[in-house]
Amino acid sequence: MNDPRTLFDLAGRVACVTGASSGLGRRAALTLAAAGAKVVGIARRDEELKKLQDEIGTQTMAYVVADLADRSKVAALANKVSQPFGAPDIIIHAAGVNTREAADDVTVEGWDKTIALNLTMPFFLTKDLVPAMQEKGWGRIVNFASLQTTRAFPGGIAYGASKAGIGQLTRAMAEAWSSQGITANAIGPGFFPTELTKAVFADPDRADSNAAQTCIGRNGRMEDIDGPLLFLCSEASAYVTGQVLMVDGGFTAK
């Protein structure tokens, strides 16, 4: 029997994290680097990525500045993220946008941007990174789902459609690639204090109401994502694929 303490060790692995400049993407980059992985972050904001690199260290983290909503740029990204440390073994899709347009007010621009960033990009970037994982016979794909993968929220019709799509995309990725040692799973966060949820946490009554909806009785803290993420990125989850793990304090259980 292997030492259980080594199950979460990511030494020798390379992880690519989208949306690494803020929120749960930034936390994911910090967590994976602390577990031993080399990390390549992707986001639009050079300054924020540089701050993260300064915190982690240039020997452990590199970054690529890119607009992931621009589909024409995705094809070149696989090569760019493979240059600093080699082809990624792990891909984390944390980049996302929520336009919060009511159903009657949804614009074509808002809809297209949401679907492009939240759903289209995770598939096509992964598709370009999978061949290197296939050669190694090992890979981890972690998508970011949402409470809105299964629940409808006001102003969330485009976002909810994209995140429901992530649930099915995760299962389809598992069906396509898990027989080759590549698992595909998703994390569904509850309410965490990130840029996407500023409006929620700026309203104490709304934040308290969301906390009361959970079984645990509070909203998420950034450290709550660390364990589930490491589980899905490591040997610990070798026989887990096609799943959406809700990290929501039991919000969707009630």
Automatic annotation (TrEMBL):
Q: What is this protein called?
A: Gluconate 5-dehydrogenase
Q: Recorded E.C. number(s)?
A: 1.1.1.69
Stored Pfam families = adh_short_C2
InterPro entries according to UniProt:
NAD(P)-bd_dom_sf (IPR036291), Sc_DH/Rdtase_CS (IPR020904), SDR_fam (IPR002347)
PANTHER family annotated for this entry? 3-OXOACYL-[ACYL-CARRIER-PROTEIN] REDUCTASE, SHORT-CHAIN DEHYDROGENASES/REDUCTASES FAMILY MEMBER
The answer to whether UniProt assigns keyword Oxidoreductase to this entry is: yes
- What GO biological process, any one, is recorded here? fatty acid biosynthetic process
Q: Which GO terms describe its molecular function?
A: gluconate 5-dehydrogenase activity; quinone binding
Query: Keyword DNA damage: yes or no?
Result: no
The protein's UniProt keywords, in alphabetical order, are: Oxidoreductase
**Family listed:** Belongs to the short-chain dehydrogenases/reductases (SDR) family.
